[in-house]
Design brief:
single chain, about 550 residues, mainly alpha, 2 domains, 3-stranded mixed beta sheet, 23 helices, globular
Length: about 550
């Protein structure tokens, strides 16, 4: 029984990797590094049929799940949810026919991963880059064909597609030729392929600007029923959209009270927004931003080790680098790219979006988004003990399923939980650091309201931006980039605050069970050992273990 289940799991995972070669590369599976996804209608129909077949095969094990051990039962539930959610998304949301950004983003990221991750000698990776570049014109043509047949295409998605594609011109026209020079035997072939890819990208941009944009007047909202489905089936949450909106509103009010209380410790004559604005003026110079993040991430790592808060895996590495241009349209501040789940080299990348070279209001807004008082909080969130540590731990799990199937409620919730936990432990004790942390918590609370608002309650793009600017106090350029992403990722924006709440609730329950024997490090290590799965599943197993 167990062996047959393991065999089926291998078939399913291999099917998913073949369907999405870029995702396979991201995970560290390199059998498909030389190709990009097949996006034509016939192939997508084949993939849907394959997923339905996998679901039917899993049904046998669901009927006999008592014969499986606990880890396999968890894997069974995760696979069922993944397949069901993806099939519904294919049939209902039809994103390949509506999202113009997904084609250049996949093509560019697929090449960038091969260049960035040092899993093999440069010559081997450059050969794969060459092949993916050669495959790019085909992939973009399939994107055009899909979009031509699409309906209900939101204008903002097409605009994002244009920005994404334009950002990739620097990769194809600049970065790749520079890397190719390191491998003389392949330089000519790579440069020729890069030129063809660049030309196809230019044709794709023209199509978006001259044809697709004028008929992009669709609605990005997925609707309340679909949103509630994702909350329960994908994330294992007991809430619906209405309850989330209420929680978000309550957290906005609660956080605003904490902000006022903390601001009074800094300057009783100024409001918290006034103090935050003054703290934003204290930022690194543009050419010192990366080094500042590097220093603070190392400081956070040292603090975690000194306080013995959680086990840090040996051999991991975290690089702080600039965000690639093709990702900057939706990443105004920074982002983290984890180490591959199946690669021995556990090297993560923290992307920091550089500020504009030309001086002006936008450049000043971008600089002020990297306050010296906020960088320590961001560093622990993204690095230690946040995302980087969590992913490095997840990549040691025996279960192949749980190495790659994750919920953002856990992933983002863990990192936001770490912000509060590290404050409890004394890492961000200065009221000015705390004020910035709470300001960011207010931003996460607004994300909950905006997430459900955009997709369930008729909130428009401009209204959402105004909420982010007026309540969360984001810079307008950054707020626009944030909301642009929210329209494409329903239930992801709410993950931060809701995930943190769920982890804190679980910690309180375990602490209540264990009493004086409760150990924070043991709780953290136990939580991380499950992988980034729905916290409801962890709760069921963790509390049962302690009965």
């Amino acid at each position: 029984m167990k062996e047959r289940f393991d065999d089926l799991v291998s078939q399913i995972l291999n099917g998913l990797w073949e369907e999405d070669p870029v995702e396979a590369t991201y995970l560290g599976v390199h059998a498909y590094d030389c190709v990009l996804p097949r996006a034509d209608a016939a192939r997508r129909a084949d993939y849907s049929k394959q997923r339905k077949g996998f679901l039917n095969s899993l049904e046998e094990f669901r009927n006999r799940e008592s014969e499986l051990d606990t880890p396999r039962r968890i894997d069974l539930g995760l696979l069922e949810a993944e397949l069901e959610v993806s099939l519904r998304a294919d049939e209902e949301f039809r994103l390949p026919e509506r999202r113009a950004d997904m084609y250049p983003s996949n093509a560019l990221f697929g090449v960038y991963l091969l260049a960035m991750r040092r899993f093999a000698p440069m010559e081997e990776r450059m050969a794969a880059i060459r092949d993916r570049l050669r495959d790019t014109p085909r992939f973009l043509r399939e994107g055009v064909e899909n979009l031509l047949g699409g309906e209900n295409i939101p204008r903002i998605w097409t605009e994002t597609g244009i920005q994404t594609a334009r950002g990739g011109e620097a990769l194809y026209g600049g970065v790749i030729p520079q890397l190719a020079a390191q491998v003389p035997s392949l330089e000519k072939e790579v440069n020729e392929a890069a030129k063809d890819a660049l030309d196809s990208l230019g044709s794709y941009i023209k199509f978006l600007e001259r044809e697709l944009l004028q008929r992009s007047s669709g609605n990005f909202a997925i609707g309340r029923e679909a949103f509630d489905y994702l909350l329960g089936r994908k994330h294992g949450l007991p809430y619906d959209a209405g309850q989330l909106r209420e929680i978000g509103g309550q957290m906005i009010e609660e956080t605003q009270r904490l902000l006022e209380k903390t601001a009074a410790k800094i300057d009783k004559n100024k409001s918290w927004p006034e103090i935050v604005e003054s703290l934003k003026d204290d930022h690194p110079a543009a050419d010192a931003i990366l080094d500042t993040y590097r220093r603070e991430m190392e400081h956070a790592r040292e603090f975690v080790e000194e306080k013995d808060l959680v086990t840090i895996p040996a051999g991991q590495n975290l690089q702080v680098v600039e965000t690639p241009e093709f990702e900057r349209a939706t990443l105004p501040y920074a982002a983290y790219v984890p180490p591959a789940a199946y690669e021995e080299r556990q090297e993560g990348f923290f992307w920091v979006t550089p500020v504009d070279e030309q001086d002006g209001p936008r450049r000043q807004d971008q600089l002020r988004g990297h306050s010296n008082w906020g960088i320590p909080v961001t560093s622990l969130h993204e690095g230690f003990p946040g995302h980087h540590l969590q992913f490095c731990r997840a990549n040691t799990i025996d279960s192949a399923v749980r190495r790659q199937l994750m919920t953002t409620v856990y992933v983002e919730g863990w990192a936001l939980y770490c912000e509060e936990m590290m404050q409890e432990q004394g890492f961000v004790s200065d009221p000015r650091n705390v004020l910035i942390r709470l300001k960011d918590q207010l931003w996460r609370a607004c994300r909950v309201v905006v997430d459900v608002g955009l997709h369930c309650f008729g909130m428009g793009f401009d209204e959402a931006v105004e909420m982010m600017v007026g309540i969360a106090k984001l810079e307008r350029a950054n707020a626009e980039a944030e909301v642009r992403r929210y329209t494409m990722t329903p239930t992801q924006p709410m993950s931060y605050l809701i995930g943190k709440r769920e982890i804190l609730r679980l910690r309180d329950e375990v602490k209540s069970r264990e009493g004086e024997s409760f150990d924070l490090k043991r709780f953290h290590d136990s939580l991380l050992d499950y992988g980034a799965i729905p916290i409801s599943l962890i709760r069921n197993d963790m509390l049962t273990e302690r009965d």
